[in-house]
Amino acid sequence: MCGRTSCHLPIDVLARACAYRDRQGRERLPEWKDPDKYCPSYNTSPQSNSPVLLSRLHFEKGADPSERIIAPMRWGLVPSWFKEDDPSKLQFNTTNCRSDTIMEKRSFKSGSTDVVESPEHWKKVWDNWRLLTMAGIFDCWEPPEGGDLLYSYTIITVDSCKSLNDIHPRMPAILDGEEEVSKWLDFGEVSTQEALKLIHPTENITFHAVSSVVNDSGNNTPECVTPISLLVKKEPKASRSSQKMMQWLATKSPKKEDPKTPQKTESDVPQWSNQFLQKSPLPTKRGATGLLERWLKQEEPVAKRPHNK
């Protein structure tokens, strides 16, 4: 269902947008883990990295679970039990997971809760906008023969709200507000069953249509998220072959008559009789070729006379 996200904020701006209050009520900014793996993008597609907000307790034993970390992760969950040496060999799609089967499917059972941050706006600077906080689960996969750990995630989806139902029957599970985000992240204090109660459709969302350029994951420009109503319509540029055709037509088209050329007198105009043209002085040709030539010369073929028996 959810196949594109957008997070093009610079590292420091994204951290400020994720500001929160810890258990003592102090305003804090989350710390970055592997910030060099974060690449701001207007058009994030599956299997690329996106910033994920999660509890510090996932990385540090004994840490305050209310403290938060931002970590870039691969979109498309690779389960820790996956035994192949290449994540691309995973035979099923883990970009999204349905809220109604999240506790049943084996691929999602051993994961932990997190929040996927993806601001949907078209401004270059963070300016009084809220991040679109989508609930998800993540896991850590270690290659069987050793190597770097791979953190990956999947976005939880629910039935669409009324305003989005005409677009798609599913929508991301959105954590609406700081309280819901805190409960979802604090797995040390909030049970899984309690956390899942936060997963439901919400109407507190705005949306707009964008250009079809977002369909190509190779496009990474502001046009991918800009409302289509704000885009300047460009005149379509003729292809090279079309330009050549136009040049050929311009050279082959009949020249316009010189306005100084004297017009034909009435006597020069062919006279019509019984709706037939006068007899052509050219010899009659039989067959389709002859008929075509007469038509091109705007002459009407002479009607065949009946044979006498």
SSE layout and pairings?
Blueprint: E1 5-7, H1 11-17, E2 20-21, E3 27-28, E4 31-32, E5 41-44, E6 49-55, E7 68-75, E8 96-98, H2 106-109, E9 112-117, E10 133-141, E11 150-159, E12 170-172, H3 178-185, H4 192-196, H5 240-252, H6 287-296
Parallel strand pairs: 4-7, 7-11, 8-11
Antiparallel strand pairs: 1-5, 2-3, 6-7, 6-9, 9-10, 10-11, 11-12
Provide an overview of this structure.
The protein is α+β, with helices and mostly antiparallel strands. Helix content is 15%, strand content 19%. The protein contains six helices and twelve strands. The protein has helices at residues 11-17, 106-109, 178-185, 192-196, 240-252, 287-296; strands spanning 5-7, 20-21, 27-28, 31-32, 41-44, 49-55, 68-75, 96-98, 112-117, 133-141, 150-159, 170-172. A hairpin with a 5-residue loop joins strand 2 and strand 3. The chain starts with a strand and ends in a 13-residue tail after the last helix. The model is unreliable at 110-126 and 269-280 (pLDDT under 50).
